[in-house]
Amino acid sequence: MSRRRMIYEGKAKILYEGPEPGTLIQYFKDDATAFNAEKKAVLDGKGVLNNRISEFIMTRLGAVGIPNHFIKRINMREQLIRKVEIIPLEVIVRNVAAGTMSKRLGIAEGETLPRAIVEFCYKKDELGDPLVSEEHIAAFGWASPQELDDIISLALRINDFMSGLFAAVGIRLVDFKLEFGRHFEGDMVRTILADEISPDSCRLWDLVTNEKLDKDRFRRDLGGVTEAYAEVARRLGIIKESAQGGEVVDFSSAGK
Ligand code: C5P
Fold it and tell me: Residue 75's Cα: distance from chain center in Å?
């Protein structure tokens, strides 16, 4: 498919060697997986939408001083990113109870939490990414105390910014997952935001109707998955509505 060297293939993305040292190309697939890849599907156009939505959010986060790996979008499915050493944690920020938190703690889905809660999962597919504490992270050295401080403060700043960004377009940011990496700049190392931010990694509910506009549509067999992602893109102003009322998103040059 490509002349470039593949570095890594994940469930929803592929990383290729970039054109310059220290860069990678992140390719967004249409593949969707849930429950640690027990459930799988191909959702036409999902990769194109996630590429655009992630570009939009990363660019805006960069503009407010959140360092991240995004450099530029190359085409419908690919973006140029900074190469980082991924810190093996999934950093989850929650504003409203849902998903595994509701299940684990018996809190009704939709209950607003008393404050934003940051959780950590150890990135290990074989173990199903178990929830871990800061003690585990420190004891096993997955991140240094300084890195963990940076991760928490960046995660909370990202939450504040994104909550406002989505609220402005009628969407509640229920929760989301972030990944961070070590970016080596000469003999300095900096913790920066990596991976993607998209409806695959966020829970996004319509502010008025509570309609789900995220991957839970796939996890829970609600249908209309890409339509919901397109609705998020449309509300953010990333894709335009056509005269007929449908979304204008050109999948033809999307190159699978
Ligand atoms: O499943 P759970 O409730 O723990 O997910 C919390 C948030 O993190 C959700 O927005 C979910 O989409 C995201 N998440 C993710 N990748 C994972 C686990 C969770 O993007 N592996």
Answer: 19
